[in-house]
Write a sequence for this structure.
């Protein structure tokens, strides 16, 4: 059973461009979480999604950030018009049930030039 | 507002020694306290977790001690090995949100010297 997969592993964008981060949950997992880790800080919750539904997006900035988890395909975290402050590691986690253990992917390291 | 405070920021322990990492939380509604281990370039992996109905949980060389009245919990790594060198994060969540909305500490970078 493959683990949580994230791609790309590293992403470089210039200010003003768009960043798309993909997350494929573990097989059989229908709950996806996104976290952001700034340098030298812990992970901070951004959004929790189930298939086709955003359940809790209280940790996501109101502007420029969006997330989706379609019926088919990976979950996508989209950052529009990136700024230098968006540079961070973005981790996706998945779980089989709502309150189950979260399994993390290897992360996508976003660098904004 | 940081809800989970973790210390120390970094720790160096001799091989065979005991590594101790401490966390304190503020929200008394938290009822699930996991510890995650993260190696460079990897995602965090669940190491061990505890709920507040017990004061201690042990799994192999890893033990969580939990003090509900003090709102503190700690990770003890017995017989620390160089392979334990990693960053450790404590976290907390509360059940009545309907899912594990994990709040993480800032991490402790552990180095176990040979």
């Amino acid at each position: 059973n493959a683990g949580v997969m994230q791609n790309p592993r590293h992403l470089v964008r210039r200010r003003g461009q768009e960043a798309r981060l993909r997350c494929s949950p573990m097989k059989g997992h229908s709950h996806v979480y996104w976290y952001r880790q700034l340098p030298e800080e812990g992970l901070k919750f951004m959004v929790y999604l189930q298939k086709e539904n955003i359940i809790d997006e209280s940790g996501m900035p109101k502007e420029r950030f969006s997330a989706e988890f379609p019926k088919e395909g990976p979950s996508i975290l989209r950052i529009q018009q990136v700024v230098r402050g968006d540079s961070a590691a973005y981790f996706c986690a998945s779980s089989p049930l709502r309150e189950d253990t979260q399994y993390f992917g290897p992360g996508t390291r976003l660098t904004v030039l | 507002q940081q809800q989970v405070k973790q210390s120390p920021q970094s720790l160096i322990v001799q091989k065979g020694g005991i590594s101790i990492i401490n966390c304190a939380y503020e929200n008394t509604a938290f009822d699930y306290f996991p510890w995650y281990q993260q190696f460079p370039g990897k995602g965090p992996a669940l190491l061990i977790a505890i709920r507040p109905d017990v004061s201690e949980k042990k799994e192999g060389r890893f033990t969580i001690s939990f003090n509900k009245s003090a709102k503190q919990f700690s990770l003890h790594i017995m017989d620390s090995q160089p392979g334990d060198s990693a960053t450790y994060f404590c976290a907390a969540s509360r059940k009545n949100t309907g899912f594990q909305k994990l709040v993480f500490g800032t991490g402790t970078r552990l180095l176990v010297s040979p």
Notes: The mean pLDDT of chain B is 92. Residues 61 and 84 of chain B are 11 Å apart (CA to CA). The radius of gyration of chain B is 14 Å.
